[in-house]
From TrEMBL, chains A, B, C, D:
Enzyme class: transferase
The family this protein is said to belong to: In the C-terminal section; belongs to the purine/pyrimidine phosphoribosyltransferase family.
Protein name: Amidophosphoribosyltransferase
Note on cofactor: Binds 1 Mg(2+) ion per subunit. Binds 1 [4Fe-4S] cluster per subunit.
One Pfam family of this chain: GATase_7
Cofactor(s) required for function per UniProt: Mg(2+); [4Fe-4S] cluster
An annotated GO BP: purine nucleobase biosynthetic process
Top-level taxon in the UniProt lineage: Bacteria
Active-site residue list: 9
Pathway as given in its UniProt record: Purine metabolism; IMP biosynthesis via de novo pathway; N(1)-(5-phospho-D-ribosyl)glycinamide from 5-phospho-alpha-D-ribose 1-diphosphate: step 1/2
Length: 458, 458, 458, 458
């Protein structure tokens, strides 16, 4: 399903570490798959924040020189998949408040569903917003509460409904928070005399830190005066980790709630094969994200795994799309079949999900064009039927093929010889002890939706 | 071995095609793995050449607007891995001669070994060179010969010794040439009323053109007045296709001399496993180029294939390398092990080649750090012992670990539990009917080396 | 004194004009002498604001395409001379508030002296500041007041102490305000069915609009529903137009309070000559700003005006300054004497002001080096002895040569044969009916200084 | 006439000077008025040339870092006004030949009229041209001759017909040449233990070097082994210094053939006034280039000199021109009248030349719009009737208003109340002992024109 779903963020924090900005740079680089549109790093030095942020990949935006200017031992960073709309620059994170007494920076992954309600309330009290992001709302609320920064963040977290993994930077202080349902991941590790915090454990691993502590749902963790203190700001709740983190977003080498992402995906492949016997010659995964599931499927089904599709590694956003006329002549850019592998074969094509169906249809056609005798599509997730309001860009209901068509109709639309999705139950089985949010599959939203309820009903 | 060996070019040509520059853009994008440093497109319109070239990826360099300005139905393009040295811009291709009578553009993949001899001769006759590339020498020689452009190119080709796949653009004319030994690939396909030529067939496939004609070693092919004519400019010779094209450079979906690159690599994996029984739990390929060989090895050895290493897709040249201090703390950026997969396992790690050995050692260490009980390294090519003078950047003999150490010593150096390379004979077996140049493995250069002989002997 | 004093802004507004963004572009271009560091334009279209702003000259920042994207018939623009300090981007204007009910943009020229007091108050009420500019404070205050946008702007203006010429943009509404003392200029003209507002009349003239209305000190003017309404928000006060606007900042073709700037400067030259008879051969003005005064001096003194100094038109901020070693060898870049004109002559050199004295000394030396027999410096303004807190960047008292030295000492420092400044009285005479703020000459600040008082006393 | 005529170059050389590249940077910056489109510097260090060149102003193109990379004690530099056409980059100077034995760089100011003839000859001998400039031809010819670099340059100079001031850089060697007619200026000065060479003396002055030696027409000067040797390569001829250098191109502080440019211009103004009595109130020069002539006119006529027009200093090429609709409404960008000065006055407007007449008409209209009662235009040069083939971009004959209209008709076209040009005789009088090329005024070309003859006759 590649390039059809987008998450909007990855966050990173470094506490009491020399070269905090450089470490954050490496962290953001490793989280880049969570957002390629914009990057930013803010550092705190003696109560003053320096910041650099802008559009582009972390490694394109920052240079040795620019990192040197970001002095300080405490830092927060952010990568972002930007949504459409004017003046996006005002939404790039970290977002900074420069008060007379103190300076504060915030990075945020997720989406607040009572955003409008909070915004109205804050505006009534006279807040002025320069951008349109919910991160600005969080920052304003933090500043409006009473008490120390830690107390204000805690009060703010208790008011927020939805998905959020936050890191707030004050003077010699980082505060990390996860929402009550645990929708978005957030972990930390000790590093020398300090700490690093990251959306995914892969960004800790690359620093040689294999011991991770996951921040709990509803927990607030304070890195202050050199030590860590942990506290719950909300009542315990059943966990609702976003299923899409496991299925698509996270890097295979990350662990989420102690379950390895690659292992999860392999297990979905295995479960797909278990109750679905089909005669075929090859299993082909759609690169890159479906490779793990394909390995699991091939192993369980006893069918040969093959590399039947090649992905162009150099595709970026600035790419000039082929016109329809060129497409009709067969021109395509991102994926190519290996004809030698595919020709004359019955292929099981494993993909991680189907959103609009257009990409799946294109790949099926590619395989047929390359001579596949049959193409059996197996999707390592259930049918997406409902939009997400917790930070995944699955846009509107109308664009979701699964909201309009049955499995059989989708099969016809994508021109496959057969099609199977996983059931929600199978998916939950793959997650073992981890509770999943499966709202996009079954509409079971784990929080009230406030003004988004209306959007859902239309 | 990824990022240790570089080839220097990919070439593309479009003849009598509306939107020739756009088609060339797609072609170069698909050949981008052959060179990421610079790109260029020249088009011919009524005897006049327009050109755009510069540093950067094809998709970053060209825009819809800039392609529109490259009007004309005949085009040549080039992607380049640039060598070090001043004023590189003068070496970016295509190179153009703007005479009073006619304008000519040349693109070139390969390396001429009698370059200096030709240069001296041309300078004696008064030629002035602005850059340092052998492509400029080829262009000058073409212009100095007598007769039509076609005759001049033919005479020039006969003088060149070494590796070259050339495309020359004149008015309503493309001329494609391959060296006598067939060291570098070059193919073409009919497209509508015109033709496209490319270094690799993957760049023809993506245009929906699955029927390819390989230009023969020692052949010159003229696309002129709408038709193709083929002729030999040199005596037939045994073929010496660069083995590295199969092993590392080419995209797995390309066919070279009718042998699919992925299939070749899978076969090398199979051959590695065939005579080498080892007890292990997992086969892990070093991404991306070793995946095919890993599939072949796993299949033949009956050991489970696993995705044990994850590569960061966003690494580019501008990347800030971790300092030694950070490296010592375990920081690394490009590859990460999946601990969950590796821990406690005996791993067969498949890589395509070893150049300096430092990368292999780093990966072995990564796997051990992630808990691998044993790491057995299998290399899907022979030991590299000699430099290449035919366009592969294997630099000097001193940097080649295989020129200084035995297999056993290399094993110790890279800290593997065991190490096996392929034999040159096994490699040739995988190539079937295709004759290979294996000079980098056995020093059997297929041409005289002229002034490079001296470099070899030191 | 060129390049020693900087003002910080020029503002422009366009109301109910098709191509409002293009007209604003021309307006800002004409106000560019008031600030070259950054430019910005915001337009209002059906309640939504689009904005483009960034570092650089207006003509470098905006393109035809980018202006087309700034759709709407109401616009505000700003040019800025940026002060030092981190994250300057947050201070570039226009500054926008994006509320749920309405969007508002503000541009501001001047400096508020009760800035800190307002900031503390606003922060107490929970405002969060992202930048460090007083413009953000103005915007926040506007949003915090009660009532319609117009009422809120009016209440805000009444709270502000210091120098400000503001334009506020709401939906189909522009509101222009000048401070009670009238320190910074602001005028408007009718254009077709709409209006344009500008810091200087030269930006109205270039649109072919020679009929200007100056906004009065303490006045608020509303452009709303197609008509203009004017009202006073503050009690009348004696006027204190910034003398530096006449002396240095404004373009010679601007009128300020109906007095032409060139005419004012010529008059200062005349007054300088009137009571100061000196035998000399030539009058030379330091280009560009002192030419008007030189004409006046030459005319009144009956001494020949000559072009003795040539200014390099291509100097910009990125210029590499000559090292001291090169300077000692006589290397200099911006001004050159015409030796042929100067040699053997007694020169009256007219400059508009002296700030640190280093530039004056350099020019005197240049003239002597070119053979001037005598150099008599005449300054078309009084000695600067006090810093400005109303928007002129005369930095700290220590840097002002006039705060440390007498006229005689300055004469010796700049190595002139004689030196004369104007008296404050003469300056006021040149301004005729217009009351001037002469605080930088005599310390007579026209408002309380709040926290700046302290800075003054140190 | 500003922005209607363009010259194409300025050249600079530094010999045996530490920081040669930095000195060249300052030199080029001072010659920037001769070409703003592109800049380049090449330095020689131990037989190897390093080069940086590109589009843009010298100060925008080079940084401290980039100049540091240009190591070496010998340098040549170039500023260029680029002509239209594809692949301009190949024409940016310096142009470098990188041979096996030696490397050579060339910079060139002027235009060769037997360019095509030389090109054909060189192409016959097999030379290949990458660009379209005559500088490349000169370089090729130098390399094709026999003997030492000095001998080859000398032989080449003897073959060239037209206007050229050349600097050629070899190893520890600079060779400077001026054409036989002396059409373009070129001077040098001793600086410490080395030398600097420049198109105009203003670029020597700014280094503190007021002692200049003008290279003679037909002379070749060699800076070699630390000393200077001078020789004639051509027979003496009457001098034909380009009149436009005095009238428009050169900076007023430059001396050409020992006559100061400002003094020349002032004299043209004086001569214009001498035989032309007219009753008027003001003399206004069109900035910047006509100020000198205006001073001369005012002085001689006894009419007050005024600054009636203000030029926007920030106009660059990227400027968005007002549409005709906006122009019709009076919008204009570059020049503004000072209404206060002009209104009700009879104005003598001094300009340096008229090319197409459109600019003059625009300025006359501006002055009338600002209330001028009468506008009497006086042009400090004769009517331009013929194109230039010696390096001045006066384009085609059709575009020259003087080729199509009489003085009376031009007067009507530009809507002036009266109009007077200088006679060619008066111009020559102003030049004193210096022989002028006045071909653009009287068609008396000082060399054969070769293939350009034809262009002239059409």
């Amino acid at each position: 399903m590649f390039d059809e779903i987008h998450e909007e963020c990855g966050v990173f924090g470094a506490y009491r570490l020399p070269q905090a900005s450089l470490i954050t740079y490496y962290g953001l680089h490793t989280l880049q798959h969570r957002g390629q549109e914009a990057s930013g790093i803010a550092v705190m030095d003696q109560g003053k924040i320096s910041i650099q942020k802008g559009k582009g990949l972390t490694i394109d935006l920052f240079t040795k020189e620019s990192l040197k200017k970001l002095k300080g031992e405490t830092a927060v960073g952010h990568v972002r998949y930007s949504t459409a709309g004017g003046q996006e620059n005002a939404n790039i994170q970290p977002i900074v408040a420069r008060g007379l007494k103190e300076q504060v920076a915030v990075v945020h992954n997720g989406q607040i569903v009572n955003e409008k309600e909070l915004r109205v309330e804050l505006e009534k009290e006279g807040c002025i917003f320069q951008g349109t992001s919910d991160s600005e709302i969080i920052l304003h609320n933090i500043q409006k509460e009473k008490g120390s920064l830690y107390e204000r963040v805690k009060k703010t977290a208790a008011k927020l409904v939805g998905a959020f993994s936050l890191i707030v930077m004050g003077e010699d202080e980082l505060i990390a928070v996860r929402d009550q349902k645990g929708l978005r991941p957030l972990s930390f590790s000790k590093m020398e005399d300090g700490y690093v915090i990251a959306s995914e454990t892969c960004a800790l691993d690359i620093l040689g830190l294999y011991e991770h502590t996951e921040i709990l749902p509803g927990e607030i963790v304070r890195f202050y005066k050199g030590i860590v203190s942990r506290e719950r700001y909300a009542l315990p709740s059943f966990q609702y980790m976003c299923a899409m983190e496991y299925i698509y977003f996270a890097r295979p080498d990350s662990d989420i709630e102690s379950i390895n992402v690659h292992a999860f995906r392999k297990e979905t492949g295995r479960l797909l094969a278990k109750n679905d016997w089909i005669e075929a010659d090859l299993v082909v995964g759609v690169p890159d994200s479906s490779l793990s599931a394909a390995i699991g499927y091939a192993e369980c089904a006893g069918i040969e795994l093959e590399q039947g599709l090649v992905k162009n590694r150099f595709v970026t956003r600035t790419f000039i799309q082929p016109t329809q006329a060129l497409r009709d002549r067969g021109v395509r850019m991102k994926l190519s079949p290996i004809k030698d592998v595919i020709e004359g074969k019955r292929v099981v094509m494993i993909d991680d999900s189907i959103v609009r169906g257009t990409t799946s249809r294109r790949i099926v056609r590619l395989l047929k064009e390359a001579g596949a005798k049959e193409v059996h599509v197996r999707i390592a997730s259930p049918i997406i039927t409902s939009p997400c309001f917790y930070g995944v860009d699955t846009s509107t209901k109308e664009e979701l093929i699964g909201a309009r068509m049955s499995e059989e109709q989708i099969k016809d639309y994508i021109e496959a010889d057969s099609l199977k999705f996983m059931s929600v139950e199978e998916l939950k089985e793959a997650a073992g002890h981890v509770g999943l949010c499966t709202a996009c599959f079954d509409g079971a939203y784990c929080t009230p939706l406030f003004s988004y309820q209306e959007k859902l009903e239309n």
